[in-house]
Amino acid sequence: MALDSTRYFSMAPGGKSPNLTEARPAITLGQAYNGVAFSVGAEGRIHPNRTGFTKDANTVSFRTSLGLPKAPFAPTLLFAYDVGGITGPYVEARLRQGLPVAKGVGFFIGGRAGYAIEQTGDSMVAGLAPYTRDGFTHVEVQIGASIAVAGTRFEPYLGYAHVPEPYVLAGAPAFQREDKLWVGASLTVAGRFPKPKR
Fold it and tell me: What is the pLDDT of residue 121?
């Protein structure tokens, strides 16, 4: 959600609040074997607002991951390739730990850190520094609640991110800060395919 001030991360600094700033629709197919989880899928990164150049950074990433879901903090390593406004490969490490409270209800804490490998941006998004050079792009921490009902999981959360060399305009070096705080939510629908025989 956007905050009505250039002092806050919103992907639409100074925009009218509230404002949906980013959506990430995704589809993932996964399989676990001997305690190791493997997945393939795709995720869109869509910036629906019209402030600045953020909509020109819309992209789709094709991804595969390996994880240890039964280990503490369920470490996962994700490999992805972006196509669209941002193009190129990157790697992301993820951690997540849940704290059940009741059946289908709990809290969680999670984190992720990314590293770009020769990613490039279209000419309109040349100022998106984390994506236009090799190296560390971001670290994020999230804390939130998890509510699961009939194969659907809803998770409202509070997030913090550190992004080195954030989006900067030549005439406004403080246009966006390196440290961001935001409120978000995710909705996951999961199922098995093919369906197990009874």
Answer: 64
